[in-house]
Amino acid sequence: MEELGVALIGCGFIGGVHLGGWKRVKGAKLVAVVDIIEGRAKRAAEDYGVPKYFTDYSKVLDMKEVDIVDVCTPTYTHAEIAVAAMKSGKHVICEKPIALRLREADEMINTAKKAGVKFMVAHCLRFWPEYVAAKRIVDEGTIGEPRIARAYRLSPFPEWAPWHKDRRLGGGVFVDMSIHDVDFLRWTLGEVESVYARGGVLKTRDSTAHDYTHAVLKFKNGAIAYVEGSWIQPPGFPFTTYLEIVGTKGMLTVDNHTTSAIRIYRPGAPPTDFTPVEEDAYYREIKHFYECVVKDEEPVVTGEEARKTLEVVLAAVKSIEEGKPVKLPLGGEVL
Amino acid sequence: MRRLRFGILSFAHIHAWSYARVVKELEEAELVAIYDDDPERLKKAAEMYGVKDTYTDYRELLKRDDIDAVIIASENAKHAELAIAAAEAGKHMIVEKPLATCLEDAERMIKAAEKAGVKLQQAFVMRYHDATVTIKNILERGEIGDILVITTTNHGKYPGLWFGDPELAGGGAVMDHTVHTADLMRWYTGDEVEEVYAVIGEKIRSELKVEDNALISLKFRKGVIGSIDCSWSRHEGWPIWGDVWLGIIGTEGYIVVDAFRSCINLVVGGRPLTWVYFGSDCDLNMIRDFIRVVEEDRTPRATGYDGYKALEIALAAYESSKRGLPVKLPLR
User: What SS3 string covers B92-106?
Assistant: First the structure.
């Protein structure tokens, strides 16, 4: 089998995680990394043994040996980079959110179709062990018809990525972080009919982006869900997630602390909880996309899927601004 | 020491049994007489708590001048009739929550107690739970700065009995499980709710005549954001009856309260895991405080007005769900 060449753009936190994933995929070869900060691109190239690094992403689009482009840049650049890569005939895996505007998402979807390339948005919960297990339990009918769900995602403000303070660049906590839970719930419970949300800029100085949002979702199948996203937890607060789904026959709950296989206490730091698995979610996500390219199959998170999820989180922003529930589909742009 | 002499008006509500236990336990209290409109239940309670004076007509019990106070734990819709009669008979009272099933009844009860000069304490036991009281003190000392958000759940199993009867209960899970954490939020913020949005979900138990799950989003006047999951969403087999859970985000900290999580894990002979609670006895704390309220002529920690305001939030949740829009308070 021919080896596929991969170029990764955006060597921040998630870029590093993806690079680790690509290193393990047999049949894929990292050929270039790109970051607008040269030092960061150079270090990533060194750390992951990548032959070339650039500060201008258009360089990798001209490289014949690049088959796949992995977009790990800030959200506001996704559409431009992904579309350019697709037009160059590259398959694209792009970090979530797909974009901040529906027209950008549409352009990405249409360009991928026209160019005949694979396009996937990296909604990692679709590969996350406890969420995959929860989805399987629901699908098998073990808890009956789903009726009511709760999902939390709580952390301090992501100060390491200051563009999150600009609502036009990052979209805010619900668009950036709760999008994980919304995508999972859509995947598991089906399409959303309406969204009511409350929140705003409650604490973070100099932020135009919402740092707290809770939303009540109504699904087409009659299920309802409470989704809460907070970036206003105190400094040092350990990242916390919770999921609960109640159905007509039973219920399930899972959280990322009490179910962890490992807890490490270090002086002066909050405990770190995690459950190591041989194939972690990011590796499985990346391997899945690679296999879709090789086997010419549709990825589990298509552009259309990611656009539907985007629409729900944007509806939450709109609901906060209008003070009333928002029905889907959305009539226009929000951010 | 003079003991406060209690009557219990109805054992229809499951909490009545715990209140009777507490009155029996407390040195400063005496269980003198009980009433129930269900003779079977009356007999059972009389035997369980060794009460000789039993009544199937509450007016007879209220006529006795050796009774100082009553605990009203009937079906929700019957609270008003019993409370107004108790007030007119000059009895102090604890009324099970929700105070009533409509604001008109709630107001009549409050006015009757005022007119008679008797204490009406709403049985908001969570104002007497040592965990939630501790948090009240922490918040008042400003230890987490100003409150920004309070997320709450009061999950439960389906209580059965008359709780599924819309006439007697006045509703389902929203009527039963909104008021406790709504009241805690009012108590903690010292503020009133300005706006309520709620959705009532399709039933978990299709055979019920009342709703068994709902989500409520709140905004307080000074801007605090709140939410309540009042659902009877715990299936049989869940290790405990339910929860009272709060996540409180402050400008300088975060608090999680899981008031009934203090439990021993217990498994007996192949049956499912159960949790045996060992935490604060809030029923005891509440009745003990009530006795002091009567003796020292103080205002109860949770008054009839607090009951009214919490009930208003539950009623606004029904209204919001029906309309599909947020509802402004006050309702009247």
Answer: EEEECCCCCCCHHHH
